[in-house]
Specification:
Blueprint lengths: L4 H6 L1 H13 L21 E7 L2 H9 L4 E9 L8 H4 L7 E8 L6 H12 L7 E2 L2 E2 L5 E5 L2 H17 L9 E4 L3 E3 L7 H4 L4 H17 L9
Parallel strand pairs: 6-7
Antiparallel strand pairs: 1-3, 1-6, 2-3, 2-8, 4-5
Helix pairs in contact: 2-8, 3-5, 3-8
Length: 223
């Protein structure tokens, strides 16, 4: 993210317009064909880890989603000793910038979370990049923590592919969560704390705005 900052500043007028157009074009997704959290007793809290580019924006989106009780920026996919921002930024650690989303299944279903993830939080057709950020650490990936989450995610991806919702194939990977490592404190709540940051204004605030406009029934004002 940082390596693009100066370039973003220099191109601010152009990028503001371009990104505004891109973010305004939110794809209309069908409801998931299956949206069952579990066939057994539903626990009061479930966790799934979602990767979709810079974790600042993904965290911001899910912090504004009703039923989500916690959204933590962090790293998934690599080892504990490489779960540090400067190392992850090299793109050689196996980690993806991710967000651990904890939610109450009685308030929001996994299907709705996936719908927001695929339509608002990121572009699932971009392979190993997202907007201005490039590298495997910005890949699109779902890390499930239950068999039901795995099934729901895979079925929904197949459903979206067959419906040809996107003009390019979905590249989102689905994998069992090996471990999640919270990011450094200065990355947490970054979009909320730094709304005037150029990167946030261009790339992330439009995502939150699209959540509010596209899914007003799911949007909460205070993160």
């Amino acid at each position: 993210m940082k390596k693009h900052f100066l370039k973003i500043i220099s191109l601010l007028p152009v990028l503001s317009l371009a990104c505004g157009i891109a973010h305004a074009d939110v794809p209309k997704l069908p409801d998931p064909a299956i949206d069952t959290e579990t066939t057994h007793a539903v626990p009061k809290s479930q966790t799934i880890v979602l990767a979709g580019g810079c974790f600042w924006g993904v965290q911001a989106v899910f912090q504004h989603l009703k039923g989500v009780t916690s959204a933590v920026a962090g790293y998934a996919g690599g080892a504990a000793d490489t779960a540090h921002y400067e190392m992850v930024s090299t793109g050689t650690t196996g980690h993806a910038e991710s967000v651990q989303v904890t939610y109450d299944p009685s308030q929001i279903t996994l299907g709705k979370i996936l719908k927001v993830y695929f339509s608002v939080a990121h572009d699932p057709t971009e392979l190993n990049y997202q907007g201005p950020d490039t590298g495997t650490q910005y890949r699109s990936e779902i890390y499930f923590t239950t068999p039901e989450q795995e099934e729901n995610a895979k079925v929904y991806i197949d459903q979206l592919q067959k419906a040809k919702v996107f003009t390019a194939p979905i590249v989102t990977k689905v994998e069992k969560l090996p471990a999640f490592y919270p990011a450094e404190d200065y990355h947490q709540n970054y979009a909320t704390l730094h709304p005037d940051n150029a990167y946030i204004a261009i790339n992330d605030l439009p995502k939150v705005d699209n959540l509010k406009k596209t899914y007003p029934e799911l949007y909460k004002q205070t993160p």
